[in-house]
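Z., the sequence and structure:
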Amino acid sequence: MSLVEVARFPNGMEAEIVRTRLASEGIMAFCFDGGMNIADGAGLLIPVRVMVIPDDLADARAILVDTGLLDPPEAAA
């Protein structure tokens, strides 16, 4: 199963909020690099990524934008 990134967050707490929000909508999501974010005081150097399957990417982004958890994409120029 391949996964794609839906968003990045500076800490694991924000990423888990997003993951559980997606799960409540029936979208399976995973947090990557959560442990790396706290290792050796890395802090904001390594963001926590929220990943979904490619088929769920558009729906996941729409849910997160609608709920204010993700900024809308910039309009194409």
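The longest strand covers residues 4-9. The CA atoms of residues 5 and 42 lie 21 Å apart.

Let me know what you think.
H.
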